[in-house]
Amino acid sequence: MVATTAAARALAGDRSDGPSSVTIPLWPESRTFSADPLGANARDVVGWRVRRCRGQTVYQEGEAATTFYRVEAGCVRLLLYSSDGRRQIVGFCFPGDLFGFALDVRDCTAEASTDLELMAYSSAAFVRSAKGQADPLMQVARRCLGHYRAFAQHVLCIRSLPAAERIAACLDAFSQRLVAGAAPCPLPLSQIELSDFLGLSPETTSREVRKLCEAGRLARAGRKLLLLPASRRGPSDPA
Questions:
Q1: Cα 104 from Cα 123, distance rounded (Å)
Q2: CA-to-CA distance for 217 and 219, rounded, in angstroms?
Q3: Higher confidence at residue 62 or residue 233?
Q4: CA 69, 71, 72, 77 torsion: positive or negative?
Q5: What distance, in Å, lies between the first and last C-alpha atoms of the chain?
Q6: Residue 5, by phi and psi: left (phi above 0), alpha (psi -120 to 50) or beta?
């Protein structure tokens, strides 16, 4: 069984179901501002390119937060590790997203889900460049910290959903963010990462993903999952 339309809309932040529907998406609202606080025309903020290979760490929880980042290409996972080594993924950053801004230390770990190209910025230099203006500081803080607000709403939304609906609704929400045009888009994260994000076992995720592929809601190229545009997806299970 795949996710109901209402569940998918809820995960994607759709407001059409009235005041009771969930309005926060699975990612921060990073494209809702009128001006880019890091744009060349906004202020003189120097950035430099940073590259990471898949699986490498961008920064670790507890480190001094001297820099923050914008994703130029690839996917970043934000996660917390427990004392016994278990991890909880709290969000994913896609191209255009900001992450890592803090006034003291890192509050999570950031790792490369894929090969990455990032733009790094000095937090101290950015604060100085704002020259006391609250708006650019609030924009960057909101865009970086929005991952946690989004994750809290994500947990609230999915905790009562069956596994099949969790996965299908989550993938539909990712499709709305990542798929452009009529071409399939590779999902820039693994099934293990999807399991950790949704709180499911890898076996359950694998089984339900296979069902979605058989139903034409997803495609596969080797081991890579492909998100499909709405016009190319098979019909949803009305149940």
A1: 10
A2: 7
A3: 62
A4: positive
A5: 7
A6: alpha
Beta bridge partners of 120: 48, 69
Chain region(s) in the chain for CATH 2.60.120.10: 47-147
**Dist. CA 148–CA 164, nearest whole Å:** 24
- CATH of region 5-23+161-232: 1.10.10.10
**Residue the block writes with tokens 């609704």:** 169
Q: How confident is the model at residue 78 (pLDDT cuts 50, 70, 90)?
A: very high
pTM over 0.90: no
Reported as a single tens digit per residue, the pLDDT across 146-158 is 777 777 777 776 6
Under a CB-based contact definition with an 8 Å cutoff, are residues 11 and 172 in contact?
yes
Task: Find all residues with CB under 8 Å of 161, minimum gap 6, and list them.
Answer: 3, 7, 169
Pairing of strands 76-81, 87-93: antiparallel
Q: 61, exposed or middle or buried, with CB in 10 Å at 0-12, 13-18, 19+?
A: middle
47-147: CATH topology is Jelly Rolls (2.60.120)
DSSP 8-class letter at 230:
G
Q: Which of 39, 1, 20, 3 is nearest to 175 (CA)?
A: 3
CA distance 90 to 196: 9
